[in-house]
Design goal:
By secondary structure, this protein is an alpha+beta fold. The protein is about 25% helix and about 30% strand. It has two domains: about 120 residues, Immunoglobulin-like; about 55 residues. The protein is elongated. InterPro entries: Hikeshi-like_C (IPR048364), Hikeshi-like_N (IPR008493), OPI10 (IPR031318).
Length: about 190
């Protein structure tokens, strides 16, 4: 049905490596599969196998779960997009259920895959949306830090020069032209 590759970390893995929960759900236990901390695995490629035909209105949705957290949607593949490299943004581990019932074994991180209605999914490109969001936050942080160095205080208000945005934007453009890696430093 599908296969998975963790770039620079694994060979292609087929569905048999996943534990099948029912006819539409599979889970990969990262503690048993990965010989290192799960949160060091930052990408995965999921792909439909050639001999499998997914119904056109369905998708294979990918979810991540850190120890003690719930599953979080990561992305999906469909017949129109039969493979995807997904950025694995692991959710923060939960604090209440970090140990299993026997209190000696920590719960593991998991990757879940399920067959779902494509129309019901948030977006098949969640990773790209998160990258854009992080980029916007980093640019905003750069602007804030620049403005902060020129701030004055007038009672309970911060005062900045009127041309501060123009000055920041010119400086930002100059840095981007001088240093090709400058803009890449904003990406995580």
């Amino acid at each position: 049905m599908f296969g998975v590759v963790f770039p620079n970390r694994s060979f292609p893995i087929d569905i048999s490596t996943f534990a099948q929960i029912d006819t539409h759900h599979w889970v990969l236990d990262m503690n048993h599969f990965v010989g290192e901390a799960y949160d060091q695995i930052g990408e995965m490629c999921i792909f439909l196998l050639n001999n499998f035909t997914l119904p056109p209105d369905k998708a294979l949705a990918v979810y991540l779960q850190s120890p003690g957290s719930g599953f979080v949607f990561c992305g999906a593949v469909t017949l129109n997009r039969p493979s995807a490299v997904l950025s694995l943004q692991w959710p923060e581990p939960g604090g209440t259920a970090l140990m299993s019932a026997d209190s000696t074994t920590p719960l593991s991180a998991k990757i879940g895959v399920s067959v779902e209605d494509a129309a019901a999914l948030q977006s098949v490109d969640v990773a790209a949306e998160r990258k854009i969001e992080r980029l916007a936050m980093k640019v905003g942080e750069n602007l804030f830090n620049f403005m902060q160095s020129f701030c004055g205080v007038d009672g309970s208000k911060l005062v900045v020069p009127m041309d501060i945005l123009d000055r920041w934007f010119k400086k930002f453009q100059e840095k981007a032209k001088r240093d090709p890696g400058f803009l890449k430093s904003f990406a995580l």
